[in-house]
Amino acid sequence: MKHTECHLFAAAILLSLLSTSVSGFPFFFPNASSVPPWFTPNTTPPAWQSFHKFAGCRNGEQVDGLGKLKEYFHHFGYIPDSPSNFTDDFDDTMESALKKYQQNFNLNATGVLDNSTIQQLIRPRCGVADIINGTNTMSSGKSAASTHSLHTVGHYTFFPHQPTWPSSRLDLTYGFLPDNQLSDTVKAVFAKAFARWAAVTPLTFTMTDSYSMADIKIAFYTGDHSDGEPFDGVLGTLAHAFSPTDGRFHLDGAENWVVDDASKSSISSAVDLESVAVHEIGHLLGLGHSSYGDAIMYPTISSGTKKVELWSDDIEGIQLLYGTNPNTNITSSTASSRETGSGSSNGGVHGVGRCWGLVIIMALFSLLLTL
Ligand SMILES: [Zn+2]
Ligand SMILES: [Zn+2]
To answer: What is the pLDDT of residues 81-92, one digit of tens each?
Structure first.
């Protein structure tokens, strides 16, 4: 091949690789230390990082950009009505939204943007709202579940009207968007996440190659993907899923997804895939958010941490909807005794994801182009 042809060939392949990644081809890393430094968002700060400048802000004040925080509260259900654009005034609407948020996250409901509140606000989180159509899905013990006298101490919640998979559909299938071309290693992470819920319920989950026919449809997207819930780049919202029996499970393709070992991360943008998957499956089965910080259904997760064990709160909630697994008979009380044990012992998924290979290939072609 002549020198120029070689250049053209390399350029064509690089372009096609780049265009695939732009359309939402997600990147995976075998562990957090394998995320290369140039993947950290130096030029684009993580979503919501700018909220730091609101520290100490209170009613009656006006700060540039405060309207963005109102949009945030609107997105997660704390401000129900959306004007054409939010003002930068810290008004009564803002204060009442903030107090509700602070209550849901077990913070002092001061109505002031103190440091602990800001820290919680900027933490990466699930895109599903905490207040849905006026129903605060996080108000502990005040949800639909509270009408059940045995569950007044539960922090778990359900979606409004308590949608579930019907008893005739407890053997569910899941499929992956073919365009994402996920490796078996990545698919195995989802299988592990499903198995955690299957262990405590009569539900079963089986992978199918037919994405269009699957009960649960798993897809990585970036930005706007036509369901009214656009993703926002690195950190911010990580994923969202719809209540039964919709089955859509979307993850933000812009995250640095780690398939194992996220707890040892030194990269601030590393997000543990299994932790997010276990949480979103809870939504797919009918659970709302919990205000109990240790629960899987708590809305936020710090980047670089792994949190995959169902807590007694999660188990109590899901078993109220579906009952126990007749084979394992794990209940929330047996799970509680596990929780006092020696912590998680997750086997982990080993091996290098095919996308890591892709990064190397792209780097090699970049090198070729410079020759
Ligand atoms: Zn969620
Ligand atoms: Zn979506």
So the answer is: 877 789 999 999
Ligand 1: distance of its center to the CA of 19 in Å? 30
**DSSP string covering 252-310, please?**
ETTSEEESS-GGG---TTEEEHHHHHHHHHHHHHTB---S-TTSTTSSB--TT----SP
**pLDDT over 70 at 103, yes or no:** yes
Instruction: Check: CB of residue 173 under 8 Å from CB of residue 213.
Output: yes
Ligand closest to CA 137: 1
* Strand blocks (E) in the chain: 27-29, 131-132, 135-136, 171-176, 204-207, 216-221, 239-241, 248-252, 256-258, 270-272
Helix (H, G, I), strand (E, B) or coil at 366: helix
Q: Which two tokens stand for residue 41?
A: 């968002």
240 annotated among ligand-binding-site residues: yes
Q: Which CATH code of 3.40.1000.10, 1.10.260.40, 1.10.101.10, 3.40.50.300 fits the domain covering 49-123?
A: 1.10.101.10
**Model confidence over 184-228: pLDDT tens digits?**
999 999 999 999 999 999 999 999 999 999 999 999 999 999 999
Q: What is the pTM of this model?
A: 0.80
Ligand 1 centre and the CA of 16: distance in Å? 34
Q: Are β-strands 216-221 and 248-252 bridged in parallel, bridged antiparallel, or unpaired? A: parallel
Tell me: cis bond preceding 300? Omega within 30 of 0 counts: no
Q: Span 1-45+156-371: which CATH code?
A: 3.40.390.10
CA 306 to centroid of ligand 1, rounded, Å: 16
Q: Given a cut of 70, is residue 7 above it in pLDDT?
A: no
Task: Please list all protein residues whose beta carbon sits less than 5 angstroms from ligand 2, which is an ion.
Answer: 227, 229, 250
71 is catalytic: no
How far does residue 219's CA lie from ligand 2's centre (Å)? 8
Given a cut of 80, whether residue 32 has pLDDT beyond it is no
CA 27 vs. chain centroid, Å, equals: 16
